[in-house]
Write a structure and sequence with these properties.
Length: 155
Amino acid sequence: MSVPREGGCACGSVRYRLTSDPLFTHCCHCLNCQRQTGSAFVINLLIEADRMELLAGDPQPVDAPRDVGSPQRIYRCPTCQVAVYSEYGRPEVRFVRAGTLDDPSSVMPDVHIFTRSKLGWVRLPDSVPAFEVYYDSKALWPATSLERLDAVLAV
Ligand SMILES: [Zn+2]
Ligand SMILES: [Zn+2]
């Protein structure tokens, strides 16, 4: 990656820069993501929190109830309320919403998950792994990403 990716909310109050490539990129077709986005799926870039540099603004956490288990913490622009990233348990890893990138086409999903609730008209490419529910990150992630994850969770 030659140029760091940047992105932000709709009003421009929140701006961020990703200082490296993501660990992995999820395309999630679960019902929670469909409800949160009002769309067919969400694209999340998984990246260490310290590799998401906030250039402007202060995204505020909103805990959104989910169908099962704990709520999901979604960080939104305090002004326009666009969701910029979220956390799933561990704050060391952020799930950045790829649609907020200045160039969303600069990333492609590495995996499709929760395809059991994928909308029927969405066609997935054969070249990308897809799972009814979740997957084994140790089997799918590049070794460098697994090392990065170990490093950040060990701190
Ligand atoms: Zn905003
Ligand atoms: Zn989901």
